[in-house]
Specification:
The protein is α/β, with parallel strands linked by helices and about 425 residues long. It has two domains: about 10-285, Aspartate Aminotransferase, domain 2, CATH 3.40.640; about 290-425, Alpha-Beta Complex (Aspartate Aminotransferase, domain 1), CATH 3.90.1150. It contains 17 helices and twelve strands. It has helices at about 10-15, 40-45, 60-75, 85-95, 110-125, 140-145, 165-175, 190, 235-240, 250-255, 260-270, 275-285, 290-310, 330-335, 350-360, 390-395, 410-425, and strands at about 80-85, 105, 130, 150-155, 180-185, 200-205, 220-225, 315-320, 340-345, 365, 375-380, 405. The strands form two sheets. A seven-stranded mixed β-sheet has the order 1-7-6-5-4-2-3, sandwiched between helices. Helix 5 (about 110-125) links the parallel strand 2 (about 105) and strand 3 (about 130). The protein binds pyridoxal-5'-phosphate. Pyridoxal-5'-phosphate binds near residues 90, 113, 114, 155 and 218.
């Protein structure tokens, strides 16, 4: 699996694309839907998956391929499939192993879009979810698992509740029941946490966030660790003939990466939501400085969290990097290099006072975005999590006064001054 001896920083800069003699130094943008061949047999072989190559950009593209290889290397996985968004990454990651009549256990502290996908859209498709609290004991998790359960899903660092997942605990509970642990690693990025090392089997990302890092491209990716036993009786679609792909048996024909091969040739083929080459180029460009940016995001966020915690107008601050955080012990184990640039706080006086502070900020912008190099703030209860009912908000860890602050890469003194003037306004 992790045969690459390079360190993460080197992988971020160099993995995914190795130019040949005289080729462009930077990953070229293959802005082409299709590929030219000299004989029909070459194309037939590609369709039969007999040899790797490109025949249509909906299924694979050279630029996207480089991006997939870079992220797979960074996460230490065997393969990755890039998608048009983080939403489609999470949707396909589940659809690849769960179908109508199946069930999934999810840890409840989740991104609003994911809650909506799981509770509304998947319900219509006949896939049922049970949500358990992140603090659930292994017995409680096991108790939620049914004979038709196909996976356990969780966020490594929940958006926006900032709950740190006890990956080893959840992975053990999943594995004891023959299930893969699928984790959304969007906020930590592989630079802060590599969930495969703690037992996760599949990783998803909204690459829209820190991986791009510059707010230019919506994108997602699904990464396969490799080595999960899909032949344990629970996953017939991975061990039986796929008649829609002329009898391919994924476990037999693609033993190194059966899950991601199936995801690409079934789901990306049929649903048609791949990442586009120009977005892959931009996301790759962003990713090449991921390690440098994440260090500063973490440093700025910790200093900002301390500043807000000691500010007389601030009621509470939630940042796993703070000693006062209930998540601090888990953060030390799973996020030793830092807890990302995202923190949450509430202003004394509640929602209304918080709104006033948001409106008074000059450097920090109100934006429906997070994990960007420009500092931004958002009020989840009235924005990203607006479609959730009160119970779902509580389960997702969103209080009505919660302001999500995504600390960017501006100078910390300027950021502190901006928040100080807004809080005192
Ligand atoms: C933003 C986000 C998503 C959805 O990603 P999009 O790229 O916006 O589709 C999923 N999970 C998490 C944790 C996110 O922050």
């Amino acid at each position: 699996m992790n045969s690459n001896p390079w360190k993460l920083e080197t992988l971020a800069v160099q993995a995914g694309y190795t130019p040949e003699n005289g080729a462009p130094r930077v990953t070229p943008i293959a802005q082409s839907t299709t590929y030219k061949y000299d004989d029909a047999q070459s194309v037939a072989d590609l369709f039969d998956l007999k040899r790797p190559g490109f025949f249509y950009t909906r299924l694979a593209n050279p630029t996207v391929d480089c991006f997939e290889k870079k992220i797979a290397a960074l996460e230490g996985g065997v393969a990755a499939v890039a998608t048009s968004s983080g939403q489609s990454a999470n949707a396909l990651a589940m659809l690849n192993i769960a179908r109508s009549g199946d069930h999934v256990v999810a840890i409840s502290s989740l991104y609003g879009g994911t809650v909506s996908l799981f509770t509304n859209t998947f319900k219509k498709m006949g896939i049922e979810f049970t949500f358990v609290l992140p603090t659930a004991s292994p017995e409680e998790i096991a108790g939620a698992i049914r004979p038709n359960t196909k996976a356990v899903f969780a966020e490594v660092l929940a958006n926006p509740a900032l709950v740190v997942l006890d990956i080893e605990k959840i992975a053990a509970a999943a594995h004891e029941n023959g299930l893969p642990l699928v984790v959304d690693n969007t906020f930590p990025t592989p630079f802060l946490c590599r969930p495969f090392e703690f037992g996760a089997d599949i990783i998803t990302h909204s690459t829209t966030k820190y991986i791009d890092g510059h707010a230019t491209s919506i994108g997602g990716i699904v990464v396969e660790k490799g080595g999960f036993d899909w032949g344990n009786g629970k996953f017939p679609e991975l061990v039986e003939r796929d008649e829609s792909y002329h009898g391919t048996v994924y476990m037999r024909d693609f033993p190194a990466s059966p899950y991601s091969t199936k995801l690409r040739v079934q789901w990306i083929r049929d649903i048609g939501n791949p990442m586009m080459p120009f977005n892959a180029f931009l996301s790759m460009l962003g990713c090449e400085t991921l390690h440098v940016r994440m260090e500063r995001h973490c440093q700025n966020a910790l200093e900002m969290a301390r500043f807000l915690e000691s500010h007389p107008k601030v009621g509470w601050v939630n940042y796993p990097g703070l000693e006062s955080s209930s998540q601090h012990a888990l953060a030390k184990k799973y996020l030793p290099k830092g807890c990302s640039g995202v923190l949450c706080f509430g202003v004394k006086g509640g929602s209304k006072a918080g709104e006033k502070v948001m409106n008074s900020l000059k450097l920090a912008a109100i934006a429906v975005h997070v994990a960007d190099l420009r500092t931004c703030v958002l009020h989840p209860a009235s924005m990203t999590h607006r479609q959730l009912n009160e119970q779902e908000l509580i389960a997702a860890g969103v209080s009505p006064d919660l302001i999500r602050l995504s600390v960017g890469l501006e100078h910390i003194d300027d950021l502190k001054a901006d928040f100080d003037q807004a809080l005192n306004a």
